[in-house]
Amino acid sequence: MSQRMFRSYQGLLLSGLFIFFVVKAVNGQLTWYINSRFVPLTIVGMIFLGILAQTIFTENRRSRLHETEHPDHHHEHDHAPSAVNLWVMLIPILIGVLIPARPLDSSAFATKGFNTSAPLISSDSSASIFETESQARNVLDWLKLFSFQDDVTPFIGEEASVIGFVYFDDQLASDQFYVSRFVVSCCAADGFAVAMPARWDDAATLRQDAWVLVTGNIESVTIKGQRVPMIVAETVQPVDAPDQPYLFP
User: What is the pLDDT of residues 93-142, one digit of tens each?
Assistant: First the structure.
């Protein structure tokens, strides 16, 4: 393979990566892979990919024009690096195209497990929760409160309204289920699940992984030796998965 052909393929692969990331950004799926705070940096990287691809095509065009004008200067022995390098560049494109994009769900519990507390989250990040209306707190907020407060009595009986996907666990009673979300610090690879138990008489009618809005009052229960908040549900309503399915600490 000649150097010019190698560079052409290299430019095409870089263009493919650029288009892939642009499509994910336009579809709002970038945050299915990374924490939202890294989106600006990713966009900068996308721009550089586009510029690099365009630079390669421009240089190849100049090289071709130069060979046309100066055929005696063309060296057939000018070979490119191994084509293995191109296959390495192709792998992330194939993975992105062939594997459908979808947020993490309960199928990842088998490998990642889940937490009913917030042990991996700094207690400093819970300061603003006290200023938040109880019904505005999400699953992670409630777990933070019960993890970092010695006295949770003030929270007992408060109204809660949380969105998450349903997860059934054999250790729960038949009228109980977990309202679950994944927390992503950097990217989906480091995501871990947090789950808040809920009690509802019609829990058996729910479907695993179905997204629901659970409203009710908070009570304290002990699961696996840990004190955790439980929602005594008054209503459980099916909802669409949120545009941003992950929570960010």
Answer: 888 888 877 788 888 887 777 888 765 555 555 556 767 788 999 999 99
Q: Which CATH number fits domain 106-247: 3.40.50.300, 3.30.460.80, 3.40.1170.20, 2.40.50.140?
A: 2.40.50.140
**Distance (Å, rounded) from C-alpha 234 to C-alpha 208?**
20
Domain residue ranges in the chain: 3-98, 106-247
At residue 48's C-alpha, the angle toward residues 55 and 44, to 5°, is 160
Angle, vertex CA 97, rays to CA 249 and CA 5, nearest 5: 120
Q: Is the pTM of this model over 0.85?
A: no
User: With contact defined as beta carbons under 8 Å apart, do 3 and 38 qualify?
Assistant: no
Helix 3-26 × helix 39-69 angle, to 10°:
150
